[in-house]
Specification:
- By secondary structure, the chain is mainly α.
- The chain has one domain (about 5-115).
- The chain has 6 helices and no strands.
- It has helices spanning about 5-15, 30-45, 45-50, 75-80, 80-90, 95-115.
- The longest helix has 21 residues, at about 95-115.
- The N and C termini lie far apart (about 45 Å).
């Protein structure tokens, strides 16, 4: 999924798309913030992304433009990140809606975390 698609899904969650299918002109300021907001959400979801992708490194994943593919597990990009992006996008304009989106973001994160399989590995005795 591209950053642009993620941004559009977040705007749809905020019910900002016009009936003709286009986004309103007053969303331009949100679009300028979108890359940084997506990167914040990617950083917040990095532990879950590592779990989903069996990664052990702590490499920071980010995008530099909305036309880029969001570098995370597709399940995370579809079912968790849109709520986080939506929450950050509307926090100044509608704190109540932002709080609702953040609640859904945290719930989606926890649900995906619970649905992920536990990893079995050896434990090194340190004493």
């Amino acid at each position: 999924m591209t950053g642009e698609k993620l941004f559009e899904i977040a705007l749809d969650l905020l019910d900002l798309r016009k009936t003709n299918g286009f986004l309103p002109e007053n969303c331009a300021d949100m679009k300028t913030k979108a890359v940084n907001i997506i990167n914040i959400c990617l950083a917040e979801c990095a532990p879950l992304n590592n779990l989903l992708q069996n990664r052990t490194d702590n490499e920071f994943l980010d995008i530099t433009g909305l036309n880029e593919i969001v570098p995370c597990d597709e399940r995370l990009a579809v079912s968790v990140l849109p709520f986080g992006v939506a929450a950050y996008l509307c926090c100044d304009e509608d704190p109540v809606l932002s709080q609702l989106m953040e609640s859904r973001y945290r719930t989606a994160y926890r649900n995906m975390q619970r649905a992920s399989k536990a990893k079995i590995h050896s434990v090194t005795e340190v004493y």
